[in-house]
Write a structure and sequence with these properties.
Length: 736
């Protein structure tokens, strides 16, 4: 039941309590000077210029179109509801017992209005002419309408998610909770849809939320990131000059250039001087794009005329005039043909490109072929997308955080010694933050820092504070990028094709978190060592514990726990199948597994001499969880960090009180807490083969190196023998 408010207005009794209100001032939203301020009575509230709105928020979500609600009474109720959500501190709103006490975000309010527009349209279509006539049956019917989408024949074709159902229930409960605020029409005071249940319960959204975003597939990630890195690191330095050439052309001789004159006379002397300049510099004349050449042919130019493909419009603008007329051609033919014969013709951008190494190592190619302006602009966009992909993959930034990057976001590198440099990018944390976001910094690797620098160089107007990427639609940009990589130019550069699988920014972030959790020390993708990414991300967490990198590290930690539990369970099942651990810590681990195995035996089954009862994975995991927290992955071993005082790496480093092992210093053949398993055998086998090759190549004079390599080889062989022996040892059922 709704508790009566201190300020109750009867439906239809007069003006709204918000009449004449300045929307932004009441909602405490800041607008720049000179911008029109929306009033409560306006049917369009334009909040596009509100200071502090995230770049990610699209323009259509900053404008509130109340005119889409046909009934004037319902339109007024919609304005009152949105105003109450934006300004809960208003006296009339604060007195409502069920009103929200914190202001809603502009995007949230826009979503509420969109749902209210759908709800009022549904009411009209179903003959409900007043909110006073709304019944619980109507509420049930609308929820079913939003829950089950239907085809043109009215057949159910699926079920919408809990978010859609929750919003449908939420808009009805909002109309009930704020009913005393509405002036022209309101729902009945006694209405109790769904027995007063919360919108989340109504939507059946009561379970613990799990991350259902799949990680980016390796088959897509590897070629995509390899292509992005090739464009950023190899093509990028040349692209900066191409972007500058495009800007120079736009300012000097494009159709948008300022200062060009209009004339009716033939500017023979001026264009002749331009032609002479081309000839003197040995520079080819500019060519028209193919469609414009065909346009000339369609209007009567000869397809065999050597001057038909020449971009006379460019030559005319370079001479200072706005437009070329075909009637000038007879006067210019002699000089133009002479220059064409001397220097030839070519597309105007990317001429004489220097060779670069192909991505596949198969020789070198010019970094670009000559381009028309549209092609050059498209290539700049492709390389900008490559910089965006690089930043997204190796930093884990969300799309909202990437959109908040600005020109000048690269903070000065901090050098702590030879080769020890920390790179930072300044951005904003948007998700879950108040309007305007919270300034944040990301510690990144040099590759990400270089990608941000390239994006600044390719910016149309690189003034400090301008959005680096602005608002972007990743799916579209990625599709263009993939088409370029899979097309003739990508193949000319030796890039591997990218499969046409689905990909988005959330999948990239999930993949980074999983890679850091599951494969420490491994390769994230071509040329990017994961340990560098992991180190930079961890530094960012340590530097700013409340920042966005802390959230990413929390995701990584969650995946690490899942990984550890999975690995411990797998090794326990191996133990039960007779595949024993090897290494100095094998005995301790085997004893622990034997203890767990004994716990899982049924007392009744043991007393009766019956075979053991196979417990399910959940029961086993409950017993393995504590040991899983001690597991750390090395490149060639598992480290069970149960006792810091026994850790060989901490003794060697002189840090016996550390709470984590130094896995990079692990000598697993000697550490009493290290174990080897069949999954580590390929690493040790490769190490043994390499040591053997090096031993065979040592001369008689290398007396110091030979004993050391011989020792390494023998140790690797010993570990391999132990792994093989443990794999073939069956457990003693009676002793177990």
């Amino acid at each position: 039941m709704t508790v009566p408010s201190m300020l109750t207005v009867s439906a239809g009794s007069g003006d709204s309590v918000f009449a004449g209100v300045d929307v932004c001032r009441e909602a405490r939203l800041t607008l720049p000077d000179g911008v029109r301020r929306p009033r409560f009575e306006d049917d369009l509230w334009d909040l596009a210029e509100v200071i502090g709105l995230p770049v990610q928020l699209a323009l259509q979500h900053r404008r509130f179109h109340f005119a889409l609600i046909g009934d004037p009474r319902w339109r007024l109720a919609a304005k009152e509801l949105v105003m109450a959500l934006l300004a809960p501190q208003h006296e009339a709103v604060a007195s409502l017992s069920r009103a929200y006490r914190a202001p809603h975000h502009v995007s949230t309010c826009h979503g509420r209005l969109a749902e209210l527009i759908r709800f009022t349209a549904w009411l009209t279509a179903h003959g409900v002419t007043s909110l006073e006539a709304l019944t619980s049956e109507d509420c049930d019917a609308y929820l079913a309408h939003r829950r089950y989408p239907r085809d043109a024949d009215g057949a159910v074709v699926g079920e919408r998610g809990t978010g859609t159902r929750r919003l449908a229930a939420l808009i009805i409960t909002d109309l009930l909770n704020y009913r005393d605020l509405f002036t022209a029409d309101r729902v009945p005071a006694g209405l109790r849809p769904w027995g007063g249940a919360s919108p989340s319960a109504i939507a059946e959204d009561t379970k613990v939320r799990q991350n259902k975003t799949p990680p980016a597939p390796d088959a897509v990630l590897q070629p995509m990131l390899a292509a992005a890195l090739h464009l950023v690191n190899t093509v990028g330095p040349h692209m900066a000059r191409l972007a500058e050439a495009i800007r120079t052309a736009d300012q000097g001789w494009s159709v948008r250039a300022s200062g060009l004159q209009s004339t009716t006379r033939v500017p023979l002397a001026e264009i002749t001087r331009v032609l002479a300049g081309y000839e003197q510099a040995g520079e080819p004349l500019p060519l028209l794009e193919d469609q414009h050449i065909q346009g000339r042919i369609d209007t009567g130019w000869s397809a065999t005329d050597p001057l038909t493909p020449i971009a006379f419009g460019v030559l005319t603008r370079q001479a200072g005039f706005r437009q070329f007329y075909s009637t000038w051609l007879p006067h210019l033919r002699g000089a133009a043909e002479a220059t064409l014969k001397a220097v030839g013709a070519e597309r105007p951008f990317g001429r004489a490109a220097v060779p670069i190494a192909r991505a596949d190592g198969e020789g070198s190619v010019p970094w670009t072929l000559p381009l028309h302006r549209k092609q050059a602009t498209a290539l700049v966009g492709i390389v900008q997308t490559a910089a965006l992909i690089t930043l997204a993959v190796v930093t884990g930034m969300r799309s909202s955080e990437l959109m908040e990057l600005q020109v000048g976001c690269r903070l000065p590198p901090e050098e702590y010694g030879p080769g020890l440099v920390r790179y930072r990018l300044a951005s904003k944390l948007i998700k879950g933050q108040p309007l305007g976001g919270v300034r944040d910094e990301w510690v990144v690797i040099e590759t990400a820092y270089r990608a941000a620098a390239l994006a600044e160089q390719l910016h149309d107007d690189p003034v400090v504070g301008a959005p680096l990427f602005g608002r972007f639609h990743f799916n579209s940009r990625y599709q263009w990028f993939r088409e370029w990589v899979n097309g003739p130019e990508g193949q000319r550069h030796g890039l591997a094709p990218i499969p046409e699988d689905r990909l988005n920014m959330r999948m990239l972030r999930r993949r980074l978190a999983i890679e850091m959790a599951y494969r420490p020390g491994g390769l994230l993708a071509t040329k990017i060592y994961l340990r560098h990414v992991s180190t930079a991300t961890t530094e960012g967490y340590a530097s700013r514990p409340g920042g966005a990198q802390a959230e990413l590290l929390a995701e990584v930690s969650s995946h690490e726990q899942e990984r550890n539990l999975t690995l411990v369970l797998e090794e326990f099942r191996n133990y039960q199948d007779g595949i024993m651990p090897a290494g100095p810590g094998a005995r301790d681990l085997a004893e622990f597994f034997a203890h767990v195995d004994g716990k899982l035996l049924s007392d009744t089954a043991v007393a009766a001499g019956a075979p053991r009862v196979q417990a399910n994975d959940r029961d086993v995991l409950n017993l393995l969880t504590k040991r899983a927290r001690t597991l750390h992955l090395g490149a060639a071993n598992y480290c069970w960090f149960t006792d810091p005082s026994r850790a060989l790496c901490l003794k060697l480093a002189g840090t016996p009180d550390a709470d984590r092992p130094l896995v990079g210093m692990c000598d697993s053949a000697r550490c009493p807490q290290a174990t080897h398993h069949p999954c580590h055998r390929p690493v040790w086998a490769e190490h043994a083969d390499q040591a053997k090759v090096f031993l065979g190549g040592l001369g008689a004079t290398r007396r110091t190196e030979k004993p050391r390599l011989q020792s390494e080889y023998e140790r690797a062989q010993r570990v391999l023998s132990e792994i093989d022996a443990a794999d073939s040892t069956a457990p003693d059922e009676e002793s177990a």
